[in-house]
Amino acid sequence: MENPDEAVVSSCCTDVYNHPLVLRLLNGILHPGGLALSALMAEKMGVTDQDTLLDVASGEGTTAIFLSRKFNCSVYGIDASPLMIEKASTRVTELNLSGHVAFRQSMASRIPYNDNFFSGAYSECSLCTFPDKRTAIREIYRVLQKKGKFGLNDVVIQNRELLDSELQNLLGRALCIADALSPDEYKILVEGEGFVLREQEDFTHLLNELVNRAAGNAQLLLNTSDINLQKSLDDAKSIITKVQKQIASDNVGYHLFIFEKI
């Protein structure tokens, strides 16, 4: 299986999650558990109003803005997509949050901040898409202060060989499946760069809810008269069915991890 670089995967992710049909199928919720899981992750990290957080692959800035307002903390987001940075920065200006939230275009493998800059960092449903995960973790470790927490919630997979061919390509990567790791592999990867695991929890039921919601929304769109949308819908339904089968067979799931820099 060809291994595309970070910019290519990021571009594909941006295209997929900004597709009008995808937004309708997911009701705008782009990772399992939505902001409720983001808040739980931050609580498990012990986030307070004294913290400065790094949002790795921040997208349109939804989580960064939410956590800054909820915990009154500072959040800096990085994303490889210029479009996502533009959208996120516009929202910050509109909400008058410029003193608390900011975004910069950057690869996770080259984080543009000094050593020990952040008291916490997090990645939501994005590490699984990075071709060079080890370098990204090494960079997160570098910019974190000692005892800084790293919150990670992501897709987990037990056996890649059991994936349908459609889920093993670039689209599968963009859907957070093709290049995901097993729970043990995430632990080995992150601890291998100097972190220690403090907490881990299985939230596969939230992934199942997200996929089932998309399936229900697809059913509601069956009678559309838009031929182009109908073709996209047929493709989406096929992918959704394949993902549902992977979840039902316990091959694909969703976990939350809290690591600490030691």
Taken in chain order, the helices and strands follow as HHHEHEHEEHEHHEHHE
Computed structural class:
alpha/beta
Percent helix range: 40-55%
Q: Any idea of the CATH topology?
A: Rossmann fold
Instruction: Walk across the major sheet and give the strand order.
Output: 3-2-1-4-5-7-6
User: How many β-strand stretches?
Assistant: 7
Can you walk through the features of this model?
By secondary structure, this protein is an alpha/beta fold. It has one domain (6-261): Rossmann fold (3-Layer(aba) Sandwich). It contains 10 helices and 7 strands. The protein has a 7-stranded mixed β-sheet.
Main features:
alpha/beta; 7-stranded mixed beta sheet; 262 residues; 21% strand; Rossmann fold
Concise structural overview:
With 262 residues, this protein is α/β, with parallel strands linked by helices. Helix content is 45%, strand content 21%. The protein contains ten helices and seven strands.
Please write out the topology.
Layout: H1 6-17, H2 20-26, H3 34-45, E1 52-56, H4 62-71, E2 74-79, H5 82-94, E3 101-105, E4 118-124, H6 133-143, E5 144-157, H7 170-174, H8 183-191, E6 195-202, H9 204-220, H10 227-248, E7 252-261
Parallel strand pairs: 1-2, 1-4, 2-3, 4-5
Antiparallel strand pairs: 5-7, 6-7
Helix pairs in contact: 2-9, 3-4, 9-10
